[in-house]
């Protein structure tokens, strides 16, 4: 009998454990805030082992990937979600949930330094973009979720300009430097490393005004980049969120809820440990502006 049992044990295939479930997460540029914050959570939470990062061009691609079932989680700007819901009237957005409401992302508006000329009578004239109103009739380069922000700000603030859709940040600044664009609009959580690397002789930061027309989508904010020679530059910000769909299957639900629980429990570590992104200091995990994943 023992010999028979041994023979069966050697000849029958061993029972295999069910394969582990892995979920894809759309972040953005490798040097961007989304990618940094995803990696920061990975340092604190072992549950991150079940999540695989997918680099993208940003919020616009991320929400499309999430809605089309190409990823299970996506970092997105809340104004991109609002646009999908209210402008595109995409019914799939009703299935979106906020796994982790995150930080505010500031609108960065760049232009070449203004040119000041004096005529023979001593009168000075300034050409270029120094205020948001100066964008009227001009060309603004943007990419990813910033394209949506550029459209909303143009409509809400009553300044009509042409939006030049480009592939990425490098293409946007190439258009600015080459004269194809008059300004570059980017939505990114400050301090952004690439902004700190900009040459102050080649680019200026342009203020973005906040008024009642923006309330409910954007909030007033200030940009601080000493390398660009500016004290504080007024702008507006939009909240970001790590979004998912309202999954019901047990394996996905466990991964998502365990990840959510760990991130919330480790918030103080994310805010205080050296090397974590400064934006963690703004995070409260409050569930605005989207229903929470439960």
UniProtKB/TrEMBL annotation:
<protein>
    <submittedName>
        <fullName>TAXI family TRAP transporter solute-binding subunit</fullName>
    </submittedName>
</protein>
<feature type="signal peptide">
    <location>
        <begin position="1"/>
        <end position="17"/>
    </location>
</feature>
<dbReference type="Pfam" id="PF16868">
    <property type="entry name" value="NMT1_3"/>
</dbReference>
<dbReference type="InterPro" id="IPR011852">
    <property type="entry name" value="TRAP_TAXI"/>
</dbReference>
<keyword id="KW-0732">Signal</keyword>
